[in-house]
DNA sequence: CAATAAATGCAACGATGTTGCAAAATGAAT
DNA sequence: ATTCATTTTGCAACATCGTTGCATTTATTG
């Protein structure tokens, strides 16, 4: 998936800043903070520009954000990650927030009268990679 | 559950600010932001004091916090709410974050090698009360 | 390439996170 | 109840982040 395609698909102008943000996030193996993206782009853009770019990208649904432990992490909201159910795994060892896609899902019985529009499920623990490392 | 008992149980001094915060949160039917608590106490304390009180209460496990839509909400981490599984329901109609306790719980098959320490499950939708109101 | 609409950079301000330090309050011992 | 050691508080101060207005620059369309 190319950055310019994503932007065009959402009727957004292909500006340098937006393309940069998307490329960094598309290449990352985990969700990143605004500052992490900014640093990856060597602070090439003004912080206001970053702020507005992220805002636009989240509002249009290009990006999905999740706040955990007082920091907001962003990921591209495309393909498998899109939808009204978001599964995340935060590894307390490597501090990465991973998007996961569990095979088996068992729904929770909510109290009567509640209507669900969106579900966010975040696990916290030790990821596969760190688990292996710990055992050695 | 009394505020002073909770504080003593966690070996914290029973200061006016901490007791005030706990009383407000114990009486609330939903999670509240730091500012909502502050206003409920008529800004009786300095913002630094609030900041440090919340910090202490969260660090010692007296309070549990969750960030949603860019605002952090706090609730007392006692009784049913305690533990390593947190179920919340955010109502997009009344904007309240409720703690829920489903009978039947989620049983998700995670990829191999992942070790779970804590699970946070947040539903977003319309709560029982707002659902009723909408239908009339 | 020209025209138009949108995005950018800069300045500025408010809200919030955070720390140091002196004054006040708490809890324990007398 | 009084004293004392320790913790908490309030204030000042500063950093960071969220947010907006405005002039300039850039991206798209014809």
- What does the overall shape of chain A look like? globular
Order of helices and strands of chain A: HHEHHEEEEEH
What gyration radius of chain A follows from the Cα positions, in whole Å? 17 Å
Q: Give the N-terminus to C-terminus distance of chain A in angstroms.
A: 37 Å
Chain pair forming the biggest interface: A-B, 38 and 38 residues
CATH fold-type name of the largest domain in chain A: Arc Repressor Mutant, subunit A
Beta-strand percent range of chain A: 25-35%
Coarse structural class of chain A: alpha+beta
> Given the structure, what is the number of helices of chain A?
5
**Biggest sheet descriptor of chain A:** 3 strands, antiparallel
Describe this structure in words.
Two copies of one chain form a homodimer. Chain A is of the alpha+beta class and 136 residues long. Chain A has two domains: 3-79, Orthogonal Bundle (Arc Repressor Mutant, subunit A); 83-105 and 113-135, 2-Layer Sandwich (Dna Ligase, domain 1), CATH 3.30.1490. In chain A, 35% of the residues lie in helices and 26% in strands. Chain A has five helices and six strands. In chain A, strand 2 and strand 3 (71-76) form a beta hairpin. The interface between A and B is large, with 38 and 38 residues.
């Amino acid at each position: 998936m190319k950055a310019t395609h994503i932007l065009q698909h959402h009727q957004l102008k292909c500006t340098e800043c937006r393309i940069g943000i998307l490329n960094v996030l598309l290449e990352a193996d985990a969700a990143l903070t605004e500052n992490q993206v900014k640093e990856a782009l060597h602070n090439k853009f003004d912080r206001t520009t970053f702020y507005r770019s992220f805002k636009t990208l989240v509002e249009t649904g290009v990006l999905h954000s999740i706040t955990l432990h007082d920091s907001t992490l962003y990921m591209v909201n495309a393909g498998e990650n899109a939808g009204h159910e978001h599964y995340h795994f935060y590894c307390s060892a490597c501090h990465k927030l991973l998007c996961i896609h569990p095979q088996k899902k068992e729904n929770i019985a909510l109290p009567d009268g509640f209507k669900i529009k969106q579900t966010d499920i975040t696990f916290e623990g030790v990821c596969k990679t760190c688990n292996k490392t710990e055992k050695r």
